[in-house]
Specification:
Vanillyl-alcohol Oxidase, Chain A, domain 3; 3 domains; eight-stranded antiparallel β-sheet; Uridine Diphospho-n-acetylenolpyruvylglucosamine Reductase, domain 3; disordered N terminus; single chain; Uridine Diphospho-n-acetylenolpyruvylglucosamine Reductase, domain 2; alpha+beta; 535 residues; five-stranded antiparallel β-sheet
């Protein structure tokens, strides 16, 4: 290890800055206070430390050289995607860290419709990739989270994602064929079967699945530089339906049965608490952008105008404020197959006492899949943060009930500090549900919100004061959710520093994990603290 006790002295910072500038150009190495502060916080957590430098490589070769220089200097490296972590996934654990800004590595490097593959740089957003593929009638099987307007594909592979296409195809990593990863010392590692030239990846499984090692690693094992994903032809047909359930138990049992049947490419459900939040937001009638997206999504202007008018006239009042709404989307190659899936979804909903309601929200979700992330704050400017667990189909109702019991125990503290909660539910392929409680509390927004939310929306919200007491209660509640998830043997996306990953592994798994870490990052300088590795 090559770290001096005097670090970070001004002279050593200047030396490192000069070394990085020689690699990426002086304009791509920054140490201004505002940017350092932004890169030292995420949606929930603010580090007590500040990154020393923000470095923005422009290519895989530059990234490798940056990592080699950081390794030689003995400094810590925090890889950052779009910055939408809420689990401390990339924040620094010391003042001698550099933050990697991969936003300039956003190119589509190779699009091969004949082999049905696409290779992108890690900083490419899901929205940008989808726009490029749509021109050719193609799509990746999993095609992004709702935050895809900013969320990067590299971040989505490091943290994993749920939502679009996940009902049929699972999480983001299940659409990955191969990776190009830069290790802590600058070595470049490539996975997958890669064709005669060694640089045309087309298939994932060639021996042990080395690709999988770097999926969901929260950037602790290597920095994703290039990602190759499978392609599919964009489904020609889709349909939507929405249902309302009186209890969470009925909702979750219906979602489990729809998952088993494989009828939905995605499902999205809310509890009454989140429904109330949605009803407080701006009316759909006044949201011209949303209605315009619905018009554009339909195959004819006439149908589009009719759909938009129906949404505008109905608003959101068709959802009973005490019900659990479920929005189901089906897609396929033929109208008959989609119709059959929707018929099965309706039949399943009826079996669990679900009643069909206006499908406006389902249409909006598909017409505008990547909206600006204005929901990062509550309708009155409150802070927002989720927790979650990925649970088996049969355990989902009990997992939800256990979280509700925790919230009931904490009801007095929630009321005292103005904290309220909601839930989002979705499915992952045929075998798991994601249950995501979300928290709102009176606490002022920070630079991370200003960097991502629309300025016009933010201007209409009050700037609340900092509220460390309420934040402490939310922290305790999120930790409680993580403990309940551990009891149910749940999995997690975006593990970061929030979920007890290492504690859940058996001794042999831990030994393997530690051996891999020792090989790819022997000094422990790559995102220390992630996945429970030492800080």
């Amino acid at each position: 290890m090559n770290t001096a006790t005097s670090w970070p002295s001004n002279s050593r910072i200047a030396d490192l800055k000069a070394a990085m500038a020689a690699i990426v150009g002086s304009g791509n190495v920054r140490d201004d206070a505002a940017l350092r502060a932004l890169y030292s916080e995420d949606v929930f957590a603010v580090s007590p430390h500040k990154v020393a430098l923000v470095v923005a490589p422009q290519s895989t070769d530059q990234l490798a050289a940056v990592m080699a220089a950081a390794h030689q200097a003995g400094v810590e490296v925090a890889p950052r995607g779009a910055g939408m972590s809420y689990t401390g996934g990339y924040i620094p654990t010391s003042d001698h860290s550099i933050s990697l800004d991969l936003s300039a590595m956003d190119r589509i490097l190779a699009l091969n419709p004949d082999d049905m593959t696409v290779t992108v740089e890690a900083g490419c957003s899901w929205a940008a990739l989808n726009a490029a593929l749509a021109e050719k009638g193609l799509r990746t099987p999993f095609w992004g989270p709702m935050s895809g307007i900013y969320s990067t594909i590299g971040g989505g592979i490091s943290q994993l994602n749920a939502m679009f296409g996940a009902g049929h195809h699972g999480t983001s990593s299940e659409s990955v064929i191969a990776l190009t990863v830069v290790l802590a010392d600058g070595r470049i590692l490539r996975t997958g079967a890669r064709g005669p030239d060694g640089n045309t990846p087309f298939y994932r499984h060639f021996g042990p699945d080395l690709t999988g090692l770097f999926c969901g690693d929260c950037g602790t094992l290597g920095v994703k530089a290039e990602i190759t994903l499978r392609l599919m032809r964009a489904p020609a047909h889709e349909d939507h339906a929405s249902f309302s359930f009186k209890t969470a138990d009925d909702l979750l049992r219906a979602m489990a049965e729809m998952a088993r049947a494989g009828v939905a490419c995605e499902m999205c459900a809310f509890d009454p608490g989140l429904t109330k939040v949605r009803l407080k937001r701006m009316s759909l009638m006044s949201d011209v952008k949303t209605l315009g997206a619905v018009v554009a999504k339909e195959k004819s202007v006439g149908k589009g105008l009719m759909a938009a008018a129906k949404i505008a006239l109905g608003g959101r009042n068709f959802i009973e404020p005490t019900d659990f709404p479920l929005h189901v989307i089906a897609e396929g190659r033929s109208a008959a197959a989609v119709a059959d899936d929707m018929a099965q979804a309706r039949q399943i909903a009826r079996r669990f006492d679900g009643s069909e309601i206006e499908n406006s929200i389902a249409k909006v979700i598909r017409a505008m899949p990547f909206p600006p992330p204005n929901s990062m704050l509550g309708p009155e400017g409150e802070s927002w943060a989720p927790a979650h667990g990925i649970v088996s189909l049969t355990n989902a109702p009990a997992f939800y009930a256990a979280i509700e019991a925790l919230f009931s125990e904490m009801a007095g503290a929630f009321q005292q500090h103005g904290i309220y909660t909601g839930y989002l539910f979705t499915s992952l392929s045929t075998n798991a549900l994601l249950i995501e409680p979300v928290f709102y509390w009176p606490n002022g927004y920070r630079p991370v919100h200003e960097a991502m939310m629309e300025a016009s929306h933010l201007a209409g919200l009050p700037k609340l004061p900092a509220n460390p007491e309420a934040t402490a209660v939310v922290t305790r509640a999120r930790q409680g959710v993580a403990q309940i998830a551990a009891r149910f043997g749940c999995g997690h996306f975006q593990i970061g520093r929030a979920y007890p990953y290492r504690q859940s592994r058996d001794a042999a798994s831990l030994a393997l994990l530690d051996a891999v870490k020792a090989l790819v990052d022997p000094d422990g300088k790559l995102n220390p603290g992630g996945l429970g590795f030492p800080q």
